[in-house]
Each structure stands twice: as structure tokens, then as C-alpha cells.
Amino acid sequence: MRIATWNVNSIRQRLDNLLVWLKERTPDIVCLQEIKCVDEAFPREAFEGLGYNVAVHGQKAFNGVAMLSKLPFDEMAPGLIGDTDDVQARFLEALVSTKTGILRVVSLYLPNGNPPDTDKYTYKIKWMDRLIAFSRERLKLEEPFVLAGDYNVIPTEADARRPELWANDALFLPQTREKFRALTNLGLTDAIRAGSDASDLYTFWDYQAGAWAKDDGIRIDHLLLSPQAADRLVDAGIDRHVRGWDKPSDHVPVWVDLDIAER
């Protein structure tokens, strides 16, 4: 089973690219972030025509997450536990049934947090604390579980072409990286790093300053796997070529292959 994540930076602007990529990579489940539309405006027919079931947790003009699945959704739950006042659409959890049992997948769009001397960073850190609490509870279920999305976290210096430029950025501050380590230390496996220690595995290139042409990238889109999912890890990769397409997102898809039979 192939599970992918992609911050498309507006589903309506990236629809054509997404459809081309879906036919090229043929994922079974896709987690999308920053769709930037309400549920009713999501172009679900285009994906249903390719055989996907569609789940959306949208928000007008900002944020928004979605999930496409070749398997029917058994359950869906929008929103991250821990703050009933948080109305930002950044989290969508779904369960699907496979031949070997339940598979749990989350599409998440973790807050950016900049500028770090504002409430935006406080919100980011509190959101990460809530994600840690959620993951701790889900891991107790001992199921194959995939946390996929745009984490807005550069985990290590190896995950940036020029880490010194990010020293004071919310994506790379020590507290941010400590929270990410606390999350993975629960027992989650970083799918990309499980297969490679290379220093050029980037998933994001800014639109500014010729970042793509200079390969001045960072790795902030991650697939974290529970032990039961990590045991089934076959392969993982980054489709960086998509950044060179016309009208690209500033992020590219990341995917993982798990040894799980669909039916």
C-alpha cells in the first residue's frame, strides 16, 4: 500500500498537477494540506473519477486538509484533541479496513509559528504538545498508524541546505526540534530517514530568491510510522521533480510503501 502526503498550497491552483501526479505515482491514500477552500468547494468529482473516496476538513482561504483513499473510509474525525476553541482546519484522522486489519492515517498541517516572538509560536508549541498527547494515546492501540503531513519542522541541520539561515526561524528553533524529537521518541519512525541519511532530501523550496534553481531546500514534510507500520516499511521517497512543473506548489509529494494488502 502506498501512502503519500503533499502540501498543495491551494487545491484549485494545483488541481491539474495533482491529477497528473496521481496517475504517475498511483498512491492508495493521499494526505493533502493547505487546500485553502471550504468543504463544498473541494473538487471531489475529479478524484472520485479516478476511484478515490474523498474526506475534507476545509477552511475558507486558509489552511484546510483532505484525504483521498482507494479504500472506503470506516471512520473520519476532523480536528486535533486538546483545545475545543481551536477552529483552524489542520487535522483529519481516518480509519480504513485492509486485509490484515485496521489502518489509521492522519493528514496534518502543523502551524508555521512565525514570527517566533508572537502568539503564533505559542500556538505552534501548544499544537505540538496536543499532537504528542494524541499520538501517545493512539500508539496504545498497537495498530499500523501513519502521521502524514506538513510539520513545519526542520528536524536537523542535515534537513536544510543552509541551516544557518533558519537559526531564528520557528521551523528550526531548539524548542521546535525538541518537540519533534519528543514526538518521534514515543516510538514513531521517520519513514524517509529510515532509508537514507542523505543531506539533500528536501521537500520544500521557497518561491523567492531562486531557491529551486539553487536547490536551497528544507525537509519539513514527514511521514511518521507507528511500530506496526514501520515493521511493514518497504520503501519511501520524495517526488522532487514535481517542483519543476508549471505552476508548482512550493512543496513536493512524499510517499511510503507499506507491506499491507488492501483487501
Would you kindly provide a brief summary of this structure?
By secondary structure, the protein is an alpha+beta fold. Helix content is 23%, strand content 25%.
Shape verdict:
globular
Share of residues in helices: 10-25%
Main beta-sheet annotation: 6 strands, mixed
Which ranges are low-confidence, i.e. pLDDT below 50, for 5 or more consecutive residues? none
What portion of residues belong to β-strands? Answer: 25-35%
Order of helices and strands: EHEHEEEEEHEHEHEHEE
List the helices and strands and how they pair.
Blueprint: E1 2-7, H1 11-25, E2 29-33, H2 44-48, E3 53-57, E4 65-69, E5 75-78, E6 91-98, E7 101-109, H3 119-139, E8 145-150, H4 174-184, E9 189-190, H5 191-195, E10 221-225, H6 227-230, E11 233-238, E12 254-258
Parallel strand pairs: 1-2, 7-8
Antiparallel strand pairs: 1-12, 2-4, 3-4, 5-6, 6-7, 8-10, 9-10, 11-12
Helix pairs in contact: 3-4
